Amino acid sequence: MTGLAAFNRFTDDLTEEDQLMPVLFIGHGSPMNGIENNEFSRRWAKMATEIPTPKAVLVVSAHWFTKGTHITAMDFPETIHDFGGFPQALFDVQYPAPGAPDLAKETKSLIHSADVGLSHDWGLDHGAWTIIRHMYPKANIPVLQLSIDYTKGPQYHYDLAKELYSLRKKGVLIIGSGNMVHNLRMVAWDKLDAPEYGYDWALQMNNTFKELIANKTHDKLIHYSLLGREAQLSIPTPEHYLPLLYTLGLQNSKEDVSFFNDKAVGGSLTMTSVKIG
């Protein structure tokens, strides 16, 4: 199916289904994961075979941090190479998935806590396409991005996610893309190839996050700044953590969680990812 055919298929079918689409939080790590065949990218590809094929994918990426909330609303979003210092092969990647303007408008109508802007100026940044191109390499499923409003606190983002719940009933796969533990200033660059190397504080915080997620203790995850020094080191800035709160806000009381790609990289990053449903 071509991108345009996929786009038309979706816009013709926004009806609810009996099956509830799972929700994912994916630790995306280095942009190089977008072109490398490694344990993380292989697991993303495998995940796509384990869940229902979505009608569309909506990504909340750490790399679209804006004033106000916006959603991509163009027919064909561009592939954004929002990084520097990487091999040319990474800049050469194009992921020509269609957008879904009707879904963008539907999503805007669902969100009452913010006046959502319909964006024609963004596209798919590396928080989205580096993952999705492994999951759906044919680029035949519409992909949209929802931005993160940097003027708002964690509770706001968690609550906003709840307004998106009905999209799960319509076959939309919602992905939060970031990293639970993400401190680039403290990366041990000489340890990037060391298997699962993590600083004590990073591993401790990652385990705490997993325990709270497994127990559905969302309030402590929302107020992560109260979790002590380890949390401050793990989340020096919020943009890579907030996509997790979008994922958790979409969980219902009966759903369990599972973890994958649960490894540390370079001491101060974790790739730990979450599947709900």
TrEMBL record:
UniProt keyword Lyase, yes or no: no
EC number in record: 1.13.11.29
Cofactor: Zn(2+)
Organism: Lacibacter luteus
Highest taxon of the lineage: Bacteria
Keyword vocabulary terms for this entry: Dioxygenase, Metal-binding, Oxidoreductase, Zinc
Protein name in the entry: 4,5-DOPA dioxygenase extradiol
Molecular functions per Gene Ontology: ferrous iron binding; stizolobate synthase activity; zinc ion binding
Pfam families: LigB (PF02900)
Broad EC category: oxidoreductase
Domain called Extradiol ring-cleavage dioxygenase class III enzyme subunit B: residue spans: 38-253
Sequence intervals crossing the membrane: none
InterPro entries hit by this protein: Extradiol_dOase_DODA, Xdiol_dOase_suB
Membership in a protein family: Belongs to the DODA-type extradiol aromatic ring-opening dioxygenase family.
Keyword Hydrolase in annotation: no
